[in-house]
């Protein structure tokens, strides 16, 4: 299932259309003006880039002493990040827990069920930045609001940025306590801590 | 009915058990059968309109308490000590349970063992004197015996001089295992070939088609189930029904309310104190020793008096049930006292496994890692090797309210849903079994369809041309054993290592 995250990305288009509709009859916009509108929007789109990363979200959790590796492959992220304007920068992400894979299909199905992600009721995991701080060269730490199921919590995510021209590459890693988010119950064998890796 | 016919004589000999006004000992043993408690102790049937309605508190406590006589072992006729039969007939009855003498924990456990072995039926509910004194009975059923020739699944009850009756339906009948070396393991998954024994009884007694159909309906009838598979079995005729009984292997048993079409594996009671549900379908909740006592009381035969909607398996109407006259049917005309139930529960709780001959090795240690890697720990979580949850069977949708009431692991592992969807005891769930003691158990899976642990990891079992190594329904030559498809892709070495580990548990 695709998460339809593009709704967020096209939001600027929508607001512009509303604006245009209010002030100008679109049929009255001549070719020159339409061209102007396109050029006017290009920088905006570049600023609020939405990407469907190639690398899945990866996570690791210890189960009976063995590290289980898992992924969530269906996710999108919207980035408007300028290291020089951290207070205005934004990173948002949305992931679809239905795409979770741990190497055992039945386990994945269980993780999608009501004891864990309960995807029927909570189809998305979302992450939204609140603030950023520099932590050395190309290194930052962000405070994000992470929502899993119906639990919203602030998490601190250290990450690095490598920039080539206009292309930005982010890499971050953080740990959550799955019980904080109602993911399963206390277990004698399954660790509470989940280590999460993101790259886009 | 065949059973009705043979029940009256011993009843006359025994008389009804004494009615006692005292069912509390010095201990503060709670009343187990209260209307309030019985309302929701059991899970609803998979078709909730036909959930069991047990007898009332008033009815239950009006039943007389059982008198427990001393019992004696049953020998294969060729191995019976000389003069034993005559000696038994010369004995006086000896009442062996006296709660006023039970003081220490050990006293209660010891008394519980005696009750565990005590047959609650002397009416020939399954087999009778003629059967066990016939050498053909042993050869045709493959009856396991001790080296002394003792058949440990039934006992002689001496109710007075010359009154020697074969006792059926003790706990020990289904929960005693004759090990390979001939030793007895009480509480284990039993290897009593009960359905083969019953088929022998029906055949050797020349019970008519109508009789065979009647008793089979009493045991397993569940006309309210969609498709009525037991009705179809009855319609298939005498020989086919007898074949169905014979198809049930040792280690499984078509107890009342279950099925010989979907026979349940005989449960292992060793470690039961740590399990949250009873029965393969998790029918009874196990929240305290009181639930254990409740289960013993219900399971030994009182569920014959249950109504499922308006249906009762022995043909009672609600008016007849509550008229005040005794119901003359095995196990339903008397009851254990609370003290007796408490003692049995104490004994069952005290059961421990024998020393495991399978010691950890390099191979089994590798298997331990595979066990974790394959995710087995999620359901078979150490140290109990079960997460103590109920998994819905294919075809059963978990009602929302169950998530708050019961321990649900909301994933089906795809095993045969027949037992839990098509029987009186079916709840729609299967209990996640503990893997402790696998080394002394088998056959495996809830329907005993696989004889060995190795078979579980054999991909061939998923094919329709597979011949099940354990239970195979009487009317098919081959059958896929589906579900629980874990570890199927392991290579042979890893499979062996995994099995080696499982045997150490």
Q: Would you mind describing this structure in some detail?
A:
The complex is a heterodimer of chains A (200) and B (505). With 200 residues, chain A is an alpha+beta fold. Chain A has 2 domains: 6-45, no CATH class; 50-199, Lipid/polyisoprenoid-binding, YceI-like (Lipocalin, Beta Barrel), CATH 2.40.128. Chain A contains 4 helices and 11 strands. Chain A has helices spanning 6-9, 11-23, 31-47, 105-112; strands at residues 49-51, 57-63, 66-72, 75-80, 90-95, 100-101, 125-134, 139-148, 151-164, 167-177, 193-199. An 11-stranded antiparallel beta sheet of chain A has the order 1-4-5-7-8-9-10-11-2-3-6. Chain A is elongated, with a radius of gyration of 20 Å. The two termini of chain A are 20 Å apart. Chain B has 505 residues and is mainly α. Chain B folds into 2 domains: 2-350, no CATH class; 362-388 and 432-504, Cytochrome Bc1 Complex, Chain D, domain 2. Helix content of chain B is 33%, strand content 8%. Chain B has 21 helices and 11 strands. Chain B has helices at 2-14, 35-40, 57-62, 84-89, 105-116, 129-132, 135-141, 171-174, 194-204, 209-220, 229-235, 238-246, 289-299, 318-321, 338-350, 362-373, 376-379, 402-405, 418-422, 453-456, 492-504, and strands spanning 52-53, 71-75, 150-160, 163-167, 176-178, 184-186, 277-278, 284-285, 307-308, 390-392, 429-431. In chain B, the strands form 5 sheets. In chain B, strands 2-3-4 form a 3-stranded antiparallel beta sheet. Chain B: One of its GO terms (molecular function) is cytochrome-c peroxidase activity.
Quickly describe the structure.
Chain A has helices spanning 6-9, 11-23, 31-47, 105-112, and strands at 49-51, 57-63, 66-72, 75-80, 90-95, 100-101, 125-134, 139-148, 151-164, 167-177, 193-199. Chain A is α+β, with helices and mostly antiparallel strands and 200 residues long.
Write the layout of secondary structure elements.
The complex is a heterodimer of chains A (200) and B (505).
Chain A: H1 6-9, H2 11-23, H3 31-47, E1 49-51, E2 57-63, E3 66-72, E4 75-80, E5 90-95, E6 100-101, H4 105-112, E7 125-134, E8 139-148, E9 151-164, E10 167-177, E11 193-199
Antiparallel strand pairs in A: 1-4, 2-3, 2-11, 3-6, 4-5, 5-7, 7-8, 8-9, 9-10, 10-11
Chain B: H1 2-14, H2 35-40, E1 52-53, H3 57-62, E2 71-75, H4 84-89, H5 105-116, H6 129-132, H7 135-141, E3 150-160, E4 163-167, H8 171-174, E5 176-178, E6 184-186, H9 194-204, H10 209-220, H11 229-235, H12 238-246, E7 277-278, E8 284-285, H13 289-299, E9 307-308, H14 318-321, H15 338-350, H16 362-373, H17 376-379, E10 390-392, H18 402-405, H19 418-422, E11 429-431, H20 453-456, H21 492-504
Antiparallel strand pairs in B: 1-9, 2-3, 3-4, 5-6, 7-8, 10-11
């Amino acid at each position: 299932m695709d998460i339809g995250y593009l709704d967020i990305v096209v939001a600027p288009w929508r607001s512009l259309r509303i604006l245009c509709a209010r002030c100008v009859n679109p049929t009255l916009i001549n070719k020159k003006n339409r061209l102007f509108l396109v050029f006017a929007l290009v920088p905006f789109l570049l600023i609020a880039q939405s990407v469907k990363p190639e690398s899945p979200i990866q996570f690791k959790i210890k189960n009976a002493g063995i590290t289980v590796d898992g992924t969530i492959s269906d996710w999108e992220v919207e980035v408007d990040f300028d290291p020089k304007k951290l207070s205005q920068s934004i990173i948002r992400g949305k992931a679809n827990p239905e795409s979770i894979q741990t190497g055992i299909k039945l386990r994945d199905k269980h993780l999608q069920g009501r004891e864990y992600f309960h995807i029927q009721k909570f189809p998305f995991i979302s992450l939204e930045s609140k603030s950023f701080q520099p932590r050395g060269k190309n290194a930052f730490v962000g405070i994000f609001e992470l929502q899993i199921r119906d639990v919203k919590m602030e998490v601190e995510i250290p990450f690095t940025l490598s920039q080539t021209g206009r292309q930005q590459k982010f890499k971050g890693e953080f740990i959550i306590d799955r019980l904080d988010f109602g993911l399963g119950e206390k277990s004698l064998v399954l660790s509470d801590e989940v280590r999460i890796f993101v790259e886009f | 009915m065949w059973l009705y016919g043979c029940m009256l004589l011993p009843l006359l000999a025994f008389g009804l058990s004494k009615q006692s006004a005292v069912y509390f000992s010095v201990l503060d043993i709670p009343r187990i059968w209260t209307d309030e408690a019985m309302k929701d102790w059991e899970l609803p049937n998979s078709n909730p309109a036909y959930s069991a309605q047990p007898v009332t508190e008033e009815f239950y406590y009006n039943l007389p308490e059982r008198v427990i006589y001393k019992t004696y072992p049953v020998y294969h006729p060729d191995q019976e000590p000389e003069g034993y039969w005559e000696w038994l007939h010369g004995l006086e009855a000896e009442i062996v349970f006296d709660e006023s003498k039970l003081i220490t924990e050990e006293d209660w456990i010891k008394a519980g063992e005696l009750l565990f072995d005590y047959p609650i039926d002397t009416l020939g509910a399954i087999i009778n004197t003629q059967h066990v004194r016939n050498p053909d009975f042993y050869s045709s059923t493959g009856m396991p015996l001790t080296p002394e020739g003792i058949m440990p699944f039934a006992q002689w009850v001496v109710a007075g001089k010359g009154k020697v009756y074969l006792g059926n339906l003790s706990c020990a009948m289904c929960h005693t295992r004759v090990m390979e070396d001939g030793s007895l393991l009480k509480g284990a998954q039993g290897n009593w070939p009960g359905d083969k024994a019953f088929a022998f009884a029906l055949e050797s007694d020349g019970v008519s088609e109508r009789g065979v159909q009647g008793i089979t309906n009493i045991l397993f009838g569940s006309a309210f189930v969609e498709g009525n598979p037991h009705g179809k079995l009855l319609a298939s005729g005498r020989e086919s029904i007898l074949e169905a009984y014979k198809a049930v292997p040792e280690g499984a048993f078509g107890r009342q309310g279950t099925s010989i079409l979907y026979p349940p594996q005989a449960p292992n009671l060793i470690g039961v104190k740590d399990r949250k549900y009873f029965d393969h379908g998790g029918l009874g909740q196990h929240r305290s020793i009181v639930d254990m006592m409740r289960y013993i009381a219900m399971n030994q035969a009182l569920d014959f008096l249950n109504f499922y909607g308006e249906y009762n398996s022995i043909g009672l109407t609600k008016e007849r049930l509550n008229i005040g006259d005794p119901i003359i049917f095995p196990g339903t005309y008397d009851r254990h006292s609370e003290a007796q139930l408490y003692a049995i529960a104490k004994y069952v709780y005290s059961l421990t496994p024998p020393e495991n001959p399978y010691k950890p090795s390099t191979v089994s240690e590798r298997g331990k890692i595979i066990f974790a890697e394959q995710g087995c720990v999620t359901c078979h979580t150490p140290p109990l090797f079960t997460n103590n949850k109920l998994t819905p069977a294919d075809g059963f949708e978990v009602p929302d309210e169950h998530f708050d009431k019961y321990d649900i692991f909301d994933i089906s592992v795809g095993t045969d849903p027949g037992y839990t969807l098509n029987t009186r005891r079916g709840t729609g769930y299967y209990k996640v079994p503990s893997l402790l003691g696998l080394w002394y158990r088998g056959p495996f899976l809830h329907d005993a369809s696989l004889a060995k642990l190795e078979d579980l990891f054999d991909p061939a079992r998923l094919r329709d041309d597979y011949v099940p190594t354990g239970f195979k329904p009487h009317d098919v030559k081959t059958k896929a054993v589906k579900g629980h498809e874990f570890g199927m892709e392991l290579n042979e070495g890893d499979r062996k290592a995994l099995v080696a580990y499982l045997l150490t548990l």
